[in-house]
Amino acid sequence: MKPYPARIAERLIPAIERLRQEALALELAHEDRLHQVNPAHRESARNLLHYLSLRQSDIRKLQEELALLGLSRLGRAEAHVMFSFDAILTALHALCGHAPTGESLWSEAQKGMGPAFLNAHADSLLGPLAGKRATRIMVTMPGEAASSPRLLEDLLKSGMDVMRINCAHDDPEAWLAMIRNLRAAQRKTGLACRIYADLAGPKLRTGRIEPIGRMLELKPRRDAFGRLLEPGRVWLTPASAPEAPPPGASVLPVEHALLQLAEAGDHLDVEDSRGVRRHLCLEEKSGESWRASCFQHAYLLDGAGCTLYHGEDAVASGIAGPLPEVMRPLVLKAGDILLLTPCEEPGRPAEYDDRGLLLRPASIPCTLDAVFDAARAGQSIWFDDGRIGGRIVENTGHQVCIEITHAAPQGSKLRPEKGINLPETDLATPALIDQDRENLRLLAPLVDIVGLSFVHGAEDVLDLQAMLRDMGADRLGTILKIETRQAFQNLPLILLAALRHPPVGVMVARGDLAVEIGFERMAEVQEEILWLCEAAHVPVIWATQVLETMAKRGIPTRAEVSDAAKGIRAECVMLNKGPYIVETVRFLSGVLERMSEHQSKHRPMMRRLSVSKL
Fold first, then answer.
1. Largest alpha-carbon pair distance within the chain?
2. Which DSSP state fits 428?
């Protein structure tokens, strides 16, 4: 009677051979797609198809039996599926005491080609690794990067490998200044850094809310006992030709003739909306404007009267303004009705009669007209990164009626420029809009990588590739942002299309994606994206809210540190901007460097542990 391991092996050989043949059959079925892939990446595309075939079967029972024999359970076969099949078959036949049948497709020399392909593709897209880290760091540029070369130097020295320009913010002049500052910082430090231009894509956001008026609030900073810590900083500037204020100062336009009469030490008395007067102390002139301080809390309305005093003597009078419009956010609770309207109609809060009965529900505009063609009753809708949720009750073609189902008990505030997600709605909008094309023409000669937002399917990828060819910019690497339900569902075809024109990477945009697919599914979905990209040998960027608290406040939460450490499974981790971004880059670099000694992708690496010695 054969030994027990041999009996198990004999039973498993047909199962593994079946999986192997199915993988080859799927490759053959997509032969046309394979021929369209760049020849240098064709093996990666083949491996992706093999992996997709493997994941079409439930092999959990098979995995348990392979584990009994001490063999690979195929749980780490993403980068080299066919070699894993052949290696297992060789071992099973050996346990049975006979030579394997059939011809292995991959030789022993090819066993490391999967990881080698992935590393080479990551180097080509994101730049070679620097230092001891196995994962690169991408940083989103704040607006001050356009005016502060020192910030770019500090970021490079702290460990930034890729500079991200978010084309949804700032303007072309600022983007060009950021690039100039980075190049200057590179020359000064001798450090390498890629430039990534992230195209905005079709913006699906809330529009403006009807203002309640024009007003400016001046607020000095006080401690817990009400004692003054710092006065409110005010920038008095000519209303006819306003000048740029210093950081942190509130802008109060006044008549130029009044400012010309001012001297250091004068006071400007301004009417407060509550019927009192507030005193602004003029300190220093800069250009035609004055720096001033306000030691009292003030609410100033547009057109408020103001008088300039030199000591006790009134020198001149005038009016303040124009002041910025003030928009009160909509406050929404579960059960409320919200109307989504076209962008030209400003939003309004709900109106009630004297008895508290609803006269007109709250409304807010939407920046994307396609919503009014595609949304259907019964579909879900989310606002502001999932903070507010609702169900569509009706779509008239020019107005969408929504019942709010998810909000804070005390009500959630909805403001302009907040994201809208329609995870169950098929919006027929291209990922590449006209504004993106204009921005790409400007930035293509200056950047290394371009990012495509709101990808839905392979056709969006092909559209971008065609434009890059037409511009003579097909040298650029591309990053495809997976942030919609459709993109996740179409990811295999998206990857096959992307491999036609490498280098290419995938960004897991976890913010929008979590809202689209549901927060409870986010953990498993991001794992699936990592698996598929590793199978295609496509580098991944781990993005959204990584160490966000630290970037904004200087100290990370424990959960954020654990999340950042998981970024070692990607080829790059993206940080968003914040006042403490330099410190955050340095902190993340240390975390990733230490984790590199313990883990490669999702495989543990067993270095010596200092705590193991008794």
1. 115
2. -
The fold of 329-421 is M1 Pyruvate Kinase; Domain 3 (2.40.33)
State how beta strands 221-222 and 228-230 pair.
antiparallel
Q: Is the C-alpha dihedral spanning 127, 132, 138, 139 positive or negative?
A: negative
Question: CA 153, 159, 163 angle in degrees (round to 5)?
Answer: 70
CATH number of 132-202+430-604: 3.20.20.60
Q: How far apart are CA 236 and CA 456, in angstroms?
A: 49
Q: Which residue has the tokens 């690794």?
A: 129
Q: What does the alpha-carbon distance between residue 79 and residue 250 come to, in Å, rounded to a whole number? A: 55
Helix (H, G, I), strand (E, B) or coil at 148: coil
Burial of residue 521, with CB atoms counted within 10 A of its CB: 0-12 exposed, 13-18 middle, 19 or more buried: middle
What is the number of helices (H) and of strands (E) in the chain? 19, 32
**Lowest-pLDDT choice from 107-116, 142-151, 525-534:** 107-116
Around Cβ 178, how many Cβ atoms within 10 Å? 25
One fold for 213-325 and 329-421: yes
- What is d(CA 402, CA 422) in angstroms, rounded to the nearest whole number? 12
Give the pLDDT band (50/70/90) at residue 111.
low
Each domain of the chain, given as residue ranges in start order, spans 4-111, 132-202+430-604, 213-325, 329-421
Angle (deg, nearest 10), helices 491-498 and 522-535:
30
Res 343: pLDDT: 81
What's the N-to-C CA distance of the chain in angstroms? 45
404 forms beta bridges with 390
Give the C-alpha separation, 403 to 40, whole Å.
Answer: 52
Q: SS3 for 275?
A: coil
- Residues β-bridged to residue 484: none
Q: Give the model confidence (pLDDT) of 115-132 as tens digits.
A: 889 999 999 999 998 777
* pLDDT digit string, tens, across residues 40-72: 999 999 999 999 999 999 999 999 999 888 888
Residue 68 tokens, joined: 């009994």
pLDDT in the model for residue 613: 52
Strand ranges inside 179-301, DSSP E: 194-198, 213-218, 221-222, 228-230, 232-238, 250-254, 267-271, 277-286, 289-294, 298-301
Predicted confidence at residue 244, as pLDDT, reads: 87
Residue 554 corresponds to which tokens in the numbers above? Answer: 């200087």
DSSP SS3 for 193: coil
Q: What is the pLDDT of residues 350-394, one digit of tens each?
A: 998 888 888 999 999 999 889 999 999 999 999 998 999 999 999
Q: What is the CATH number of domain 213-325?
A: 2.40.33
Residue with tokens 């954020």: 560
